[in-house]
Amino acid sequence: MEIVTRFAPSPNGPLHLGHAFAAIVAHDLAQAAGGRFLLRIEDIDGPRSRAELGDEFRRDLEWLGLEWEEVPAQSTRLDSYTAAAQGLRERGLLYPCICTRREIEAAATRKGPEGPVYPGTCKRRAIDPALPAALRLDVEKALAVTGQLFWMDELAGKQVADAAAGGDVVIVRKDLPASYHLAATLDDAADGSTLVTRGADLFHATHVHRLIQALLDLPVPRWHHHRLLLDEKGRKLAKRRGSPALSDRREAGEDGLMLARQLRLQHLPSGT
Ligand code: GLU
């Protein structure tokens, strides 16, 4: 089977070293297998998305010596998200939720991988259809449809999909026709990604993605959740914590190919 990997940055801020590492890992896994490496701009995060960053990203990747195929940005695929959500809704698998983040924090009784787990408040009450609502997946109902699911991570091995850990996740946001979970899962299927390569911080999301795939009868790729580059305090790299933007390094005349070589040394086969 052809290996198709992807790098899927969100244009909410400039790329930094952690992104460069993610792009190089995805690129090299495809290249080593004679496969394809895709770039997908995940630009539906409303006001936080800055269109001009797409060009910056392309210049950054070029500077690192990478070659890619670009697939359509998420903002051009909204109809496919709406259609999929509509189908799930017609099957009774989604329910509207008007809770605010603050209400959820106050009502939650446990924490999941993405913070307080939604306690299902809106599942049990009638909601005025005129109110802006998100749509949540009724995970219990969904699991009753799919039964137990598995997925394969190239580094961590075979996983039992534990979609219940995060509770009833948002599938359609109040302000957008999809959440990250729905959009990324549909896009990976549409793009033919066979090896979804991303940072270990998104490992937990894959349990949900596997469930969405089963519900929508989408092809099931393999995953490769690579280690994250950390700062000297052991925290994930972030621009706000002083990790410089690749664009600044590039514009300061640093050698991108040399940087890419250094980053490659950090992708240890053990994934540790
Ligand atoms: N757009 C996501 C991010 O920038 C990555 C999503 C993914 O790789 O699935 O964190």
TrEMBL record:
It holds the Pfam family tRNA-synt_1c. Belongs to the class-I aminoacyl-tRNA synthetase family. Residues 2-259 form the Glutamyl/glutaminyl-tRNA synthetase class Ib catalytic domain. Keywords: Aminoacyl-tRNA synthetase, ATP-binding, Ligase, Metal-binding, Nucleotide-binding, Protein biosynthesis, Zinc. GO terms for molecular function: ATP binding; glutamate-tRNA ligase activity. It comes from Erythrobacter litoralis. One of its GO terms (cellular component) is cytosol. Gene3D superfamilies: HUPs (3.40.50.620). It comes from the Bacteria. This is Glutamyl-tRNA synthetase. One of its GO terms (biological process) is glutamyl-tRNA aminoacylation.
